[in-house]
Design a protein that fits this description.
CATH topology: Four Helix Bundle (Hemerythrin (Met), subunit A)
Strand content: under 5%
Distance between the termini: 31 Å
Largest sheet: none
Radius of gyration: 19 Å
Length: 197
């Protein structure tokens, strides 16, 4: 979806447009948990989203702790490096599975939502670019931990900026993706959509 209007771009979007919200209005978030059609795949998928939210917040918090002197460089690097690597790898893999398997199935099942899945696919491309920048600035940040104080702080600031941008986009994307997919599953069932375990 090239040349999206600002209102639909992941960097500025405030939520799904009204024409894509008809199922989430039928099945609002407060009805999801405990719904008979919320199957194992959907529950696992929501747990993965919660993990991305939690780990993204922990990474952001650790950078703040480092910048404010609550974590020494060595301690910070030992905690941060493996978690950043895990976060980036898992998010990339999660998006690949959605793009290759789930989005085509869901879009084919409900033609009126196809534009929404195209929008989510466009989000993935933008988020992928942000993941690349996050990995680069994260690596530069870790390498700078042995450098002079000003170099360390500059690298920490650069990473923190990229991380904030990524998390902002990611949180918007996860919320909109859930608003599109979970109501569709509740309406049609996992088995009916061909995604049940």
């Amino acid at each position: 979806m090239a040349d999206l209007p600002d209102s639909l771009r992941i960097e500025t979007r405030q939520g799904l447009p009204p024409d894509l919200r008809y199922l989430v209005e039928k099945y609002p978030r407060d009805t999801w948990q405990g719904h008979a059609n919320l199957g194992g795949m959907a529950q696992f998928w929501l747990q993965r989203h919660d993990m991305f939210r939690e780990l993204g917040g922990l990474l952001q918090g650790s950078v703040t702790d480092y910048r404010e002197g609550r974590l020494a460089p060595h301690d910070f690097a030992a905690w941060f490096a493996p978690r950043l690597r895990f976060f980036l790898q898992q998010l990339h893999g999660h998006h690949q599975i959605e793009d290759m398997h789930y989005f085509p199935v869901f879009a084919a099942a409900e033609e009126r939502l196809k534009r929404g899945f195209d929008l989510l696919d466009a989000d993935h491309h933008t988020i992928h670019d942000a993941l690349e920048r996050n990995a680069q600035t994260g690596s530069a940040f870790l390498q700078a931990l042995g450098a002079a104080r000003d170099t360390r702080l500059f690298a920490a600031d650069a990473y923190a900026d990229e991380n904030t941008k990524l998390l902002s986009m990611l949180l918007r994307h996860l919320h909109d993706e859930e608003d599109l997919i979970i109501p569709l599953i509740l309406d049609r069932t996992e088995e009916g959509l061909g995604v049940g375990g």
